[in-house]
Amino acid sequence: MLPPASHFATCPRGLEPLLEAELIAAGAQIVRQLPAGVLFMADAAAEMRANLHSRIATRILRKVGFTRYQKEEHIYRAALELPWPSWFSVNKTIAVKVGAQNAPLKSLNFITLKIKDAICDRFREETRERPSVDTETPDVPVYAFFTPDAVTFYLDTSGVPLFKRGFKTEASEASIKENLAAGLLMLSGWEPGTPLLDPMCGAGTILIEAADMALNRAPGRGRNFAFEHYRDFDAGLWKRIKAEARAQEKPLRKLPIFGSDQDRWVIDKAKNNLVAAGYADVIELRGSG
Prior knowledge:
Layout: E1 7-10, H1 16-25, E2 29-34, E3 37-41, H2 44-53, E4 59-68, H3 72-80, E5 94-100, H4 108-127, E6 140-146, E7 150-156, H5 178-188, E8 196-198, H6 205-214, H7 235-247, E9 257-261, H8 264-277, E10 284-287
Parallel strand pairs: 5-6, 8-9, 9-10
Antiparallel strand pairs: 1-3, 1-4, 2-3, 4-7, 6-7
Helix pairs in contact: 2-7, 3-4, 5-6
């Protein structure tokens, strides 16, 4: 039996220790590392800081329910009993995603549909209305994770995955996700302020992550988060946390960070991404072809 935790942060496998350190810095209390994630306790401020500052996390999930089950109909009843209208309003769009590990479920698609039905039915019971579904960009992403005999329900506080910083406009065929790029930089032993050369820079992902680290800029500064749609969202607290992050940034300046690639068209993509991130005059790019 795992100890209780209010949140679960997901990340690429192998980067869990880096994620744990970030969560501690955000004010969270660590419960346990798991493969591809970390269980932790967090208040509203720590949840916000984790979303804003984590370079490693993919999602920050807030636990809202847990139950044992034996049959699939138990899952609908468990989801129906959760007070969804107390967490978000009916005019917010929703989407349900499901994950499972050794769970005896015949169809994850069917279970996903039943959880969605339960949420909508709970809203109908209380408000006579139901939220709309938006599978692409929902205001409120709901996540359910199944083990052989239990299911945990989460509200996704991140929304769009955290590795999508909100700046990069173009990708190359070999582009890596931003959180993996940040993890590689941290594991490499590179220290911000020391020279860095990426000879196969592609769309510039590693370069941009390195510049963010060197200038102490929050990776989530250019995007929005799902927690802004929840009823308990404290706009004043969020404003203070963002101001706190901006105050910690170092002045924009030329950095000893360099990128090159043998394909000129890839270099053009990198240049466009540097412009979007505000680093056109910070990082030097050269074509080697």
